[in-house]
Write a structure and sequence with these properties.
Helices cover 40% and strands 21% of the residues. It has 6 helices and 5 strands. It has a 5-stranded parallel beta sheet with strand order 3-2-1-4-5, with helices on both faces.
Length: 147
């Protein structure tokens, strides 16, 4: 891997993404790289949810609850980067996660993408999730999947 000057850190508000933030902060400290803190938001997620059977026109229970804002989801990662005195900028982009991560990485000329791992394989074994797998296969740069 070349010495990165720009690291894309994809955050989704999970513990795995915060572990990724710690890895990105350490790499940024060692290399002097700038971090792009990215949160991908689905546009109007409640509109894509199916209505419950027999509930003509009723919204699902979870659609009525306000989603955590991107600012709140990025908070712990932001704290990690600030604690490590890492230069960073924040982006929240609407769209499918994998495609958005790949697009931002290419547009911002990132040398490294750091993200958390999701999903479970057979018998509950940890596995790389679909988003991480898609990014690993199609990325224009090195990808680090933190576990």
């Amino acid at each position: 891997m070349i010495k990165p000057s720009r690291i894309l850190l994809a955050i989704d508000g999970t513990q795995g993404s915060f572990r990724a933030a710690r890895h990105a902060a350490l790499i940024a400290n060692l290399t002097g790289a700038e971090v792009i803190l990215l949160h991908c938001a689905d546009p109007h997620p409640s509109l894509a949810l199916p209505f419950p059977a027999g509930g003509a026109g009723a919204m699902p229970e979870y659609a009525a609850c306000p989603a955590s804002s991107a600012h709140e989801r990025m908070g712990p990662a932001r704290d990690i980067l600030q604690d490590h005195q890492v230069r960073y900028m924040e982006h929240t982009v609407e769209g499918p996660a994998a495609e958005t991560i790949l697009g931002v990485a290419q547009r911002e000329c990132c040398d490294l993408i750091v993200m958390g791992r999701h999903g479970t394989g057979n018998a509950g074994e940890p596995d790389v999730g679909r988003t991480a797998e898609h990014v690993v296969r199609a990325a224009p740069c090195t990808v680090m999947v933190a576990s």
